[in-house]
Task: inverse folding
């Protein structure tokens, strides 16, 4: 099925919206009727689609996403701690249509970057002037021997994409007897959400402390040390959960046996009652389909960080966790990529120069209990030839507190609203 | 001086209005990044303060106090320190006019 402009207007009512707002009166509006296709409606993609339409109501914006609901990775560890339910982190996309964004619930299977056409599994073809890829990560389940089988059998999950695996891991923790062992394994960086593994340990420890106080946690880290917010987490483990957390650096998993419930590392076989193995990751497959997964190892996407346009494929932009850059892979960061990218696309399509010195920021909270949290925050300024340079005074809290916990809750409400409404 | 500006504009392929727009685009995009924590349109859904309609002088002074440490903060000393004085003034104006 090929969609023409009439179909687009009929299905979305975008024509009515454009008539009401009056393109000519919108500051910065190019009113080009150029077509932008955004792939992936997570933190990055949904934000990009929304701000594209907000900043140029003349653009035709289509957002392609296979899932019918947004499930937030940030705060999903809180579900494991029993502090939130799946419904608390699950939100609809319905309000985005108010921006005149056309949602297509499908998966992209082919991209002709020469003719600038995207094809979905359902057979929809969409032409574009600019394409934005915001698909997040693929988890490389074959990188740990036995993981794919254990995952298919429902015995071992990664739960590194919020959704059914988050709920299953919570049920496994609930079913575990007091005195049991939870074994988590973390890959070598880079991976999605650098503080995520350590926050997850805090959340599981919080749950065990309430419900199963004789239980233990073993964290097998493929890195030489805690990757993010080390003082925050080591303080929480020693003061809030003394004797519960056994942290083992330089312990990347080689194999997992879901029948015997064993994780094998280079040094050891570690048995657990609940295993949570997080394999290595890379930019999702659609980036490779576009020819944009172009770093030396073929894992991540290299972009011009001023516009987030691929360094190898013209008119294709990549934002969020798929980008290979010295920036943290966080949901917050993805929304900031999205805004800089949307701004650049609006200017480029209108024949103007994009902002030569964009500024992005990251704010990332991790809970250490049901009342305490810490943060890491930085402002990054783009400098030609250097990329994004972290500004002075950025950094992390050494100890969790109630004030940061309150702001973490508030942050989640505001960022979900900013992405989806 | 004017000749210099005209030459720079010509070199960049921009008219004078283009320069003004470039500045607006820079501030508009930074303002949007503030909204990740302070809510869409600068209207907060939680305990982070609203930025929409915020008094301009109060905004500038608060950002400077965050920077100096005169005002206690969690993340805001880190954020306020990352922007130039000109950007803070322009952001104050942007949010004051946002209803």
Result:
């Amino acid at each position: 099925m090929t969609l023409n402009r009439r179909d687009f207007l009929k299905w979305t009512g975008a024509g009515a919206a454009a008539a009401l707002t009056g393109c000519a009166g919108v500051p910065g509006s190019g009113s080009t009727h150029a077509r932008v296709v955004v792939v992936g409606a997570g933190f990055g993609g949904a934000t990009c689609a929304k701000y594209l339409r907000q900043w140029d109501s003349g653009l035709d914006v289509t957002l392609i996403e296979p899932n019918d609901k947004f499930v937030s990775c940030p705060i999903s560890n809180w579900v494991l701690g029993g502090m939130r339910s799946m419904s608390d982190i699950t939100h609809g996309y319905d309000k985005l249509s108010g921006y005149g964004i056309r949602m297509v619930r499908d998966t992209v299977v082919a991209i002709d970057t020469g003719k600038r056409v995207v094809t979905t599994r359902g057979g929809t073809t969409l032409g574009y002037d600019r394409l934005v890829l915001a698909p997040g990560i693929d988890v490389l389940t074959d990188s740990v021997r036995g993981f794919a089988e254990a995952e298919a059998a429902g015995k071992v999950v990664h739960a590194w994409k919020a959704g059914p695996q988050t709920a299953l891991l919570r049920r496994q923790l609930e079913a575990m007897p007091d005195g049991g062992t939870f074994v988590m394994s973390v890959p070598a960086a880079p991976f999605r959400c650098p503080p995520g593994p350590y926050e997850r340990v805090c959340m599981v420890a919080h749950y065990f402390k309430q419900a199963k106080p004789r239980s233990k946690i073993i964290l097998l880290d493929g890195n030489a040390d805690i990757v993010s917010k080390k003082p925050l987490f080591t303080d929480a483990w020693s003061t809030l959960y003394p004797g519960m957390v056994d942290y083992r650096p330089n312990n990347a998993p080689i194999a997992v046996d879901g029948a015997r419930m064993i994780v094998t590392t280079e040094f050891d076989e570690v048995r657990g009652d609940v295993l949570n193995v997080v394999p290595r990751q890379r930019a999702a497959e659609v980036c490779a389909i576009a020819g944009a997964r172009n770093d030396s190892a073929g894992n991540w996407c290299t972009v011009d960080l001023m516009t987030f346009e691929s360094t190898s494929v013209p008119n294709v932009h990549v934002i969020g966790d798929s980008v290979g850059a010295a920036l943290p892979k966080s949901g917050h960061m993805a929304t900031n990529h999205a805004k800089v990218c949307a701004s650049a696309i609006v200017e480029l399509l209108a024949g103007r120069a994009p902002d030569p010195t964009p500024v992005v920021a990251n704010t990332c909270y991790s809970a250490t209990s049901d009342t305490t949290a810490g943060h890491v925050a930085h402002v990054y300024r783009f400098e030609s030839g250097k990329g994004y340079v972290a500004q002075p005074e950025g950094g992390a809290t050494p100890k969790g507190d109630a004030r940061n916990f309150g702001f973490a809750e508030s942050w989640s409400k505001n960022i979900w609203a900013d992405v989806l409404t | 001086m004017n000749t210099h500006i005209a030459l720079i504009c010509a070199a960049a392929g921009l008219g004078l209005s283009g320069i003004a727009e470039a500045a607006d685009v820079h501030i508009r995009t930074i303002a949007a990044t503030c909204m990740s924590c302070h809510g869409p349109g600068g209207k907060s859904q939680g305990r982070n303060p609203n930025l929409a309609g915020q008094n301009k002088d109060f905004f500038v002074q608060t950002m400077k106090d965050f920077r100096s440490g005169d005002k206690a903060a969690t993340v805001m000393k880190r954020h306020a320190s990352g922007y130039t004085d000109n950007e803070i003034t322009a952001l104050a104006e942007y949010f004051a006019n946002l209803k």
Notes: Chain A has a mean pLDDT of 93.
